[in-house]
Amino acid sequence: MTKINLLGLLQNHALFRHISQEDVRELQKEVVKLELGKGSMLFRKGDMAEATYIVVFGLIKLCLPSSQGNDKVLELIRGGQSLGEAMMFLDEPYPFYAEALENTLLLKIPRHALLQLLDRSPLMSRQMLAGLSYRLLGFIRNVERYSLQNATQRVIDYLLQLSASQRSNDIRLELKKHLVASLLNLSPETLSRILHQLMDEHLIKVYGASIHITSEEALKSYQQNMHALA
Q1: Interatomic CA distance for residues 165 and 167, integer angstroms
Q2: 11 contact partners, CB below 8 Å, separation of at least 6
Q3: Burial of 184 (C-beta count, 10 Å sphere; 0-12/13-18/19+)
Q4: Is the pTM for the entire model greater than 0.90?
Q5: What are the backbone angles phi and psi of residue 185, rounded to the nearest 5°?
Q6: In the CATH hierarchy, which top-level class contains the domain 6-144?
Q7: Which residues belong to any copy of the HTH crp-type domain (predicted)?
Q8: Residue 19 near residue 10, CB atoms below 8 Å
Q9: Domains of the chain by residue range
Q10: 51, 72, 175, 194: most buried by Cβ count inside 10 Å?
């Protein structure tokens, strides 16, 4: 069992940073620690949403299941982020499933405990609304990206985002390539073709799950030129 400072984690999380110490201590009594191994399910499609979850460390993917086996990746939830709030408020079953992509530690906050806290704290209610709105904006931007960018531009955008988040031109793919393809709304074959195309242009080098961006400026310029020609 991983040892953590539960009170400290709650106090320092953006969602609870501005509530009273007393409220945090009361909430602590309701929180349950969950440890998931790689490949373990947090919940399945159709399960009732009875809690909000905070990822302490690890990586969770949210997916729409497909009878053909090519499940659609909706979102990745990383350390410090939360999930499950929207469906919890609606009191509806999950329309997707959540699976750990690596060993993951989460805090489970039961619905009744969170709702009681929101009733007492208007500031926290606004913060949660802001978080949900930010996530909605992210989904809208993804739809915009799928609509306005071609496949190559989407892949380049993804690589540049990874480079920025990892602060390096030597980036590590968080997902297997077929999941990256799903996240970008591409087929695995299309993703593979585009990576080879970028390699042929000497813009990247691929070493399994690692990718070296030869020149960030050249990659951005290539993306912009494609947009100008579209």
Answers
A1: 5
A2: 17, 21, 24
A3: buried
A4: no
A5: 60, 45
A6: mainly beta
A7: 149-217
A8: no
A9: 6-144, 149-229
A10: 51
